[in-house]
Amino acid sequence: MTAFLLQRAFTLALTLLAATVAIFLLLEVVPGDPALTMMGMNADPAAVEALREQLGLNAPLVERYLTWMADMLRGDFGTSYTYKTPVTELVLERLVVTLPLTIYALTLSTLIAIPAGIAAAARRNSPADLTIMGITQIGIAVPNFWFAMLLVILFASVLQMFQAGGFPGWDAGFWAAMKSLTLPAIALALPQAAILTRIMRSSLLDAMGEDYVRTARAKGLTRAQALRRHALRNALIPVLTIIGMQFSFLITGAIIIENVFFLPGLGRLVFQGVAQRDLIVVKSVIVLMVFAVVIVTLLVDMAYAIVDPRLREGRR
């Protein structure tokens, strides 16, 4: 198991390095002069040149990349030109919104999808199965921002159970903060729950057709017992993959949802950074998101090793 995890950690480290190169190059080839965009088209040329020097835009490309990487490894993500605040402080302020929102949405998605997928697989081709699959098809087809607008209309405008947007802060109390995150979390969770339900059902049906399950049934276990004791654990392996991918999607998908609900999270920070051409903020936040995805992927691999004994024994 140790060798497997070390191998995966090395691979993910290379992935993170490649991602930093790609992010840096993509932002560098964007048309226009970042300094001129920040200061405006009528800015004094001397002031624009001073800003270019301050941002290090006059240095060679490789030197700028190496300097950026060295600063990040020291924990220095630079200072936002727009906010005049260290990026680290901005990220920490916004992370207390985005991270709970992502975990909330992922928890809702998992709590909905796994029981629904098991119920559909246990009652294959029954009316319950067909109903669940029909609902999941709708959930996959409809984008989450449309769900978000429907939720606002129903629960904020009509029923007035929740507010339409904004975040009161954790100082207002845990339940008040969680209440403001509920509609955004549901909007993020529903499409992902639909995908995860179908994966859970398909994986469980595949596992139920394996020889070891048929052997268990031949020894006297009922279908429900064979499903619970033997098929379910093996069926969770692809489900863990999807959950890890969903965490990544929820972080990036929060960019849209946070703007719909006016939440001061990382997604809204990236959106504002792009609009204001604040490259320091955009590069740093995107790299942090990629780092979070890499860490989650490593945790999923560890979960693989727990679920699948073959990985603990060092076999592929």
UniProtKB/TrEMBL annotation:
The keyword Cell membrane applies. It is found in: Cell membrane. The chain crosses the membrane at residues 101-122, 143-162, 174-196, 235-257, 285-307. Gene3D superfamilies: MetI-like (1.10.3720.10). Its main location: membrane. Keywords: Cell membrane, Membrane, Transmembrane, Transmembrane helix, Transport. Residues 95-300 form the ABC transmembrane type-1 domain. InterPro entries: BPD_transp_1_N (IPR045621), MetI-like (IPR000515), MetI-like_sf (IPR035906). The keyword Transmembrane applies. GO terms for molecular function: dipeptide transmembrane transporter activity. This is Peptide/nickel transport system permease protein.
